[in-house]
Amino acid sequence: MKHKYYRKLSVLLIFLAAINACKKNETPEPPPPPHPVPYWIGYKDIVKETDIGYYDVKATPDSLFHVSMFGWVASYKVEKIEGYILLTQKGYYEHKQYGTSMQQMAGGKDGELYLRVSYWGTNTDGLLRLEKGYTTVADIKYNVPLSVRAFNTLCTDKNGVLYVGVTADNRDGGRSCYVAYSRNKGTTFETLLIPGYDDNAIEKVVVDNAGHIFVEMYYGNILYYDQLSKTWKIVFQKDSMEDIRDFTSGEDGEIYVATSGGLYHSANYGGTITKVPLPGDVRVPVIRRVHINAKGTLYITVDAYFVDRPNLDVSNCYYSSDKGMSWDHVTARGKGAYEMTIRGFDANGRLISTFSDTTKVQWYINSKYIQLAVTTSPVE
Questions:
Q1: Cα–Cα distances in Å, from 52 out to 68, 119, 166, 202, 237?
Q2: Are 317 and 329 a contacting pair, CB within 8 Å?
Q3: Closest by Cα among 378, 375, 372 to 73
Q4: Sequence-ordered list of residues with C-beta below 8 angstroms from that of 275, at least 6 positions apart, any chain
Q5: Cβ 103 vs Cβ 117: under 8 Å
Q6: Residue 308: how many CA atoms within 13 Å on its side-chain side?
Q7: What does the alpha-carbon distance between residue 129 and residue 127 come to, in Å, rounded to a whole number?
Q8: Which of 102, 75, 82, 95 has the alpha carbon at shortest distance from 346?
Q9: In whole angstroms, how far apart are CA 229 and each of 206, 225, 226, 232, 288?
């Protein structure tokens, strides 16, 4: 019996050895191909036709970007997981007060987030600081040493200083415009009065890389604060036939202004202003937004109706690395994405945008799709 057992065992071992020899001679299977890297990643939301969609999108230095809509804000990050490039949600905060609208945000240097909010039906505004990780929220509006009527706009500079455009009561019983700024995350504020614009409001505040403050007023003038003379100076005036749509700053004293009649550039605080040539497929020069990224690349969006587009794969967004002397298209989001709006850049230089969507919404009445998307690589 033992001989039979050992004979069977020997046959089994020889058989297994033969199998292993065959496996050694086999050609190894190639590794699976890498996952294709998409140009855009993002998602769709459904909103009412009367809603504007996302109120604001802002990035913070921790590679997160934050999206606000109505009473909530969420943070996202582009990550590589198991070979896939994915957009993952990292945080979510909902302001519990009823009727809150998260109108605008600005990102702080240490990952904190500042929010300008309005409360429907109350004619009051709020100014909040949301700490990194959405751990705690502080109401900092009462730290502004003014009798505030409205917080118009806000921004932060490269050092994390917070700037807020404010309409407040003045000593004469009327109202004036101010820029309130804080170097300690909204704990205390200093203020700069903007004289001569009492019946106005501040549309936008921008601080260039050298720390110079520019503001756009409601009726169209763009002003610059001269720190030597402690006075405000006009650097761009609204043309009677053109409306200012947007403006941004780059290097020391440099601004770009987007209008309904074209794109303008000044490199010396408005001392000289030149009109920037536009892409050849722009039929009517209605510029909606203008941005500059950290490397100085210029980006614009044009009203989609005024771009020669054989199909929706051609976007209404362009970028230039030579101050507008030549332009390239930013690749469109894809099927259904009608009009693109630049929202800014994350800490790694990826372009963040939103898109109106022509795709029909099923099962919802008076609703539309909107898309939020970020490029997987910088576009420049």
A1: 12, 17, 24, 21, 28
A2: yes
A3: 372
A4: 262, 263, 264, 265
A5: yes
A6: 5
A7: 7
A8: 75
A9: 20, 9, 6, 9, 33
pLDDT tens-place string over residues 352-371: 999 988 888 888 888 989 99
For residue 147, give the nearest of 130, 170, 125, 127 by alpha carbon.
170
Q: What are phi and psi of 303, to 5 degrees?
A: -50, 125
Burial class (CB in 10 A: 0-12, 13-18, 19+), 111: middle
CA distance 252 to 209: 6
CA end-to-end span of the chain: 80
Tokens read off for 364: 């919802």
Angle (CA) 356-203-114 rounded to 5° is: 80
**CA angle centred on 64, ends 300 and 53, rounded to 5°:** 55
Instruction: Give me the sheet containing 298-302, strands edge to edge.
Output: 287-292, 298-302, 317-320, 328-329
Question: For residue 123, what are its two tokens?
Answer: 């004619």
* Whole-number Å distance between alpha carbons of 303 and 288: 6
In sign, the C-alpha dihedral spanning 33, 34, 40, 46 is positive
pLDDT of 10: 43
SS (H, E, C) 81-109: ECCEEEEEEEEEEECCCCCEEEEEEEECC
Cβ(214)–Cβ(232) under 8 Å? Answer: no
List Cβ neighbours of 18 (8 Å cut-off, separation of 6 or more): none
| The two three-digit tokens of residue 203, written as one number | 């549309």
User: pTM of the predicted model, to two decimals?
Assistant: 0.88
Beta-bridge mates of residue 87? 78
pLDDT at 5: 35
Count of residues in the chain: 380
In this structure, the strands spanning 255-259 and 244-249 are antiparallel
Compute the distance between CA of residue 199 and CA of residue 272 in angstroms, rounded to an integer: 29
Contact (Cβ atoms closer than 8 angstroms) between residue 284 and residue 270: no
In this structure, the number of other CB atoms found within 10 A of the CB of residue 18 comes to 10
Residues of the chain with confidence (pLDDT) below 50? 1-16, 18-19, 23
